[in-house]
Design a protein that fits this description.
- The complex is a heterodimer of chains A (about 210) and B (about 260).
- The longest helix of chain A is centred in the C-terminal third of the chain and has 17 residues, at about 160-175.
- In chain A, about 35% of the residues lie in helices and about 25% in strands.
- Chain A has 2 domains: about 20-50 and about 65-75 and about 145-210, 3-Layer(aba) Sandwich (Rossmann fold), CATH 3.40.50.300; about 80-145.
- Chain A has helices at about 35-45, 65-75, 90, 95-100, 105-115, 130-145, 160-175, 190-195; strands spanning about 5-10, 15-20, 25-30, 50-55, 60, 75, 150-155, 180-185, 200-205, 205-210.
- In chain A, the strands form 2 sheets. A 6-stranded mixed beta sheet of chain A has the order 6-7-8-3-9-10, with helices on both faces. Chain A has a 4-stranded antiparallel beta sheet with strand order 2-1-4-5, covered by helices on one side.
- With about 260 residues, chain B is mostly helical.
- The chains are: A alpha/beta (about 210), B mainly alpha (about 260).
- The interface between A and B is medium-sized, with 24 and 18 residues.
């Protein structure tokens, strides 16, 4: 069963998608800037309401899933991840705290951090992190959540290509091991080649499956 | 002078205007702008207060439940209109409804508690008490709601991405917006808190000064002043809380989406 299925989905003259399937595994979403890639991710997470059409997540119309529950199953990482004032741990625990769950265990938090190549202490001030480190910190959050699917909006835009490939390679491996599917917006063809099993192109006001 | 009240006649009030003339001359000499505005404000204040004095004199001489009720309602309408006017087109329909509800319901509750429980007023419509006390509670709440909503409306615009990021991580709208609501509440309450801290040291509050000038024993005047300041904290706190909690909710729809069309 596909992770997401869209049927006749229209949104504010930005997107008009007759039919689209997002399969299990890693799907790269590509296309020119401003074409509606971020909007597509927001529609999948019910953060935007389409004028018409149906979106199904694993066969269930997303309107039948409580919105907050949907977003807990399918967290979305926005393009410029938020770093809240406080420590690295405060930031790793951001999703847990927003979901009003207990903080992740410090061991697991440190492990997630190290997996993505960050060497900071958990009690270091997060305010001094660079753009690339912030992105990795935000990705490390997801490793602590065990989600069903993750939606990533240009998660490595602040990283150089080598680091991006290494970080995403690790992330994909760890998430796949936990059975998590990934939908990834990116401009990097190297990343598409290295990580993606499927590809969706957003352009000209619509979205369609494409060959890798 | 035997401790009684020095009644200010019109010539004496005129002498107070001399002080304004001094300021005007200073402004002319230093070419500071807004001279017309200041003179206009002084004259308008004088006319407004004379009219209010005439009206209050008549109302106090003819106490009646409907007249007190009417004046109370007019104050409420004026407060709501002032808040809405401050924001012009920046409040959505939902937020305008919240202003009406929070301002009227919040202050009516606070005024009722103050007059009927704290003061134990009888008859309940005694205009000499209802009008000035309602005026102070409603006026301060009006300022509080304006400050709080301004912080909310501006904060929504500045933190739109952070709030949507929080929703994307599975936050309930309430949790996503909590930091913003907290800081808006603080900025709305700040003037009230500051004025309490300075009270009695930096300045003597107007109501107490008035009562003391009118010959009331200072301890009686202070009792009233403490009660009214606490009443103001209660009124401002509850109305701002209502306005912010209900107001924050208007930015989200039934599916807990952030409605970006309501951010202005």
């Amino acid at each position: 069963m596909p992770v997401f299925e869209l049927e006749q989905v229209r949104f504010r003259g930005v997107l008009d998608i007759p039919a689209l399937r997002i399969e299990t595994g890693v799907t790269a979403v590509t296309g020119p800037s401003g074409a509606g890639k971020s909007t597509l991710l927001r529609l999948l997470d019910d953060l935007r309401e389409p004028e018409s059409g149906t979106i199904r997540h694993r066969g269930t119309d997303i309107r039948e899933i409580p919105a907050i529950e949907l977003r807990r199953r399918v967290p979305m990482l926005s393009q410029s991840p938020v770093v809240v004032p406080g420590t690295v741990l405060d930031n790793l625990a951001r999703a847990h705290r927003l979901q009003e769950r207990p903080d992740p265990a410090p061991d697991a938090a440190a492990e997630a951090l190290a997996a993505l190549g960050l060497t900071q202490d958990l009690d270091a001030d997060a305010g001094v992190l660079s753009g690339g480190e912030r992105q990795r910190l935000a990705l490390a959050r997801l490793l602590l959540l065990t989600p069903d699917t993750v939606l990533l909006d240009e998660p490595t835009s602040a990283l150089d290509e080598d680091t991006a490939l290494r970080v995403m390679g690790t992330l994909v491996r760890l998430l796949a091991a936990g059975g998590t599917d990934i939908v990834l917006v990116t401009h990097s063809s190297a990343l598409v080649d290295a990580c993606a099993e499927h590809r969706v192109v957003v352009s000209g006001g619509t979205a369609r499956q494409a060959a890798r | 002078m035997s401790g009684g009240l020095v009644v200010l006649g019109w010539p004496q009030v005129g002498l107070a205007f001399v002080m304004v003339l001094v300021v005007l001359l200073l402004m002319v000499a230093t070419r500071v702008g807004r001279r017309g505005e200041m003179l206009w404000a002084c004259l308008r204040m004088t006319v407004q207060l004379v009219l209010v004095g005439l009206v209050l004199g008549w109302v106090f001489a003819h106490p009646s439940w409907w007249l007190t009720g009417l004046i109370f309602a007019l104050m409420q309408v004026f407060a709501v209109a002032t808040i809405l006017g401050k924001f012009r087109g920046r409040l959505s329909l939902g937020l305008r409804r919240v202003v009406v509800l929070a301002s009227t319901a919040g202050t009516t509750g606070a005024v009722a508690w103050f007059l009927f429980v704290v003061v134990g007023l009888s008859p309940w419509y005694e205009p000499r008490y209802v009008i000035p006390i309602a005026g102070m509670l409603i006026g301060n709440s009006m300022t509080g709601i304006t400050l709080g909503l301004k912080a909310l409306v501006d904060g929504m615009r500045e933190n739109r991405d952070a709030i949507e990021d929080a929703l994307g991580l599975g936050a309930a709208p309430r949790a996503a917006i909590a930091p913003l609501v907290r800081s808006a509440f603080e900025s709305a309450l700040m003037p009230t808190i500051n004025s309490m801290l300075g009270t009695g040291i930096v300045f003597l509050p107007g109501m107490m000064t008035g009562q003391i000038l009118a010959g009331v024993d200072p301890m009686t005047a202070i009792g009233y002043q403490i009660a009214i300041l606490l009443g103001i904290v209660g009124a401002v706190g509850t109305t701002v809380f209502l306005a912010l909690v209900l107001g924050a909710r208007t930015y989200f729809d039934a599916r807990d989406r952030l409605r970006d069309d309501r951010i202005r």
